[in-house]
Amino acid sequence: MTANNSSDIYKLEILFSEIYFRYTEKGNIMQLVDRTLKTLTILSKYSEGLNLTELSGELQIPNSSTHRVLKSLKESGFVIQDIRTKRYQLSYKIISISQNIRRNDTLILHSRNEMVKLSKILEKNVILCVLNGDNVMNLECVEYANTSMFRLKKGYETPWFLTSAGRVIVSMMQHEEINTMIDKARLEPITEKSIVSKDILKNELSKAYSQGYYLLDEELQQNVQGVACPIYDYCNHVIGAIAFTTLKTSQPITKDNIQLLLNCSRSITESLR
Predict the structure, then answer these.
(1) SS3 109
(2) Is this prediction's pTM over 0.85?
(3) Helices and strands (H and E) in the chain: how many
(4) What is the CB-side half-sphere exposure of residue 256 using CA atoms within 13 A?
(5) Nearest residue to 112 via CA among 143, 136, 137, 153
(6) Which of 54, 224, 255, 263 gives a 20 to 30 Å CA spacing to 9?
(7) Nearest to 89, CA basis, from 120, 43, 132, 51
(8) C-alpha distances in angstroms, 181 versus 128, 131, 176, 201?
(9) Taking Cα atoms as reference points, which of 231, 235, 242, 240 lies closest to residue 269?
(10) Other C-beta atoms within 10 Å of 28: how many?
(11) pLDDT single digits (tens) 91-101
């Protein structure tokens, strides 16, 4: 960790300490921390920033409350305000922390090289996914140099049951966890092949568990296939999945493709143990 990154993390710790000591007596500590994190999350979605009223609308709180949160964030250097437009934006300090987390994320570190190799062999984009609540999130993406299709976005989330990665991750969980995930799933027809029955979805998860991979065939988008294989930690708990997507008519997924993906996921799993 560099000195600058250590300083930035220290400032973030100071920020939350300041919030704690300022608001503990009023019993609002959790509320303030929640609002602070939501403010950072909301501002991360608006590259041009938001003014006080717009941000208050997003947070659904009064301007005065939003201003208190922004004051602490500005004083700690995590938010800046454009003097001309009066809009608030995230500062580069957040980016430096994000980059530090990225470099030290064990799963990414152990997956990146294998993803690059697989992308070159398949000539396709490759995605590293993790479960984030009821969604699957793109944790890391490797885009093949000569393809402009299926542009990938790190941090992008999709309901787990709509993706091959989500289904294969959930299929490797405990039975009680699987049942809970299925019960909460809102199945709606997106294409003619979309699964709308929870019983059928449960059968598909059983198939994924038996196969060790899952192939999603035109359920999210016509003429698009996706396939994913699970990644396990040293305790043999599923922690993510490696996946890629392709056009069915021109480049359908083959058994050889799946085997290469399986080999990739196994290599990552072995490196984590």
Answers:
(1) helix
(2) no
(3) 10, 8
(4) 4
(5) 143
(6) 54
(7) 43
(8) 21, 11, 9, 11
(9) 231
(10) 15
(11) 877 766 666 56
Using the structure block, give the residue that is written with the tokens 């000591």.
21
DSSP 60: T
Q: Which residue has the tokens 């609308």?
A: 57
DSSP-based three-state secondary structure for 44: coil
Can you list the domains of the chain with their CATH numbers? 3-97 (1.10.10.10), 105-271 (3.30.450.40)
For helices 52-59 and 63-75, angle between their N-to-C axes, nearest 10 degrees: 110
Sorted by sequence, the CB contacts under 8 Å of residue 63 that are 6+ apart come out as 52, 53, 56
Number of residues assigned to the chain: 273
The gap between the terminal CA atoms of the chain, to the nearest Å, is 24
Sign of the C-alpha dihedral computed for residues 72, 73, 76 and 81 taken in this order: negative
- Closest to 89 measured CA to CA, from 102, 73, 104: 73
Per-residue pLDDT band at 144 (split at 50, 70, 90): confident
- Distances 195 to 137, 178, 248 between C-alpha atoms, Å: 21, 16, 18
245: which strand partners?
226
Tokens describing residue 99: 């980059």
- Specify whether the CB–CB gap between 97 and 5 falls below 8 A: yes
pLDDT tens profile 65-80: 999 999 989 888 889 9
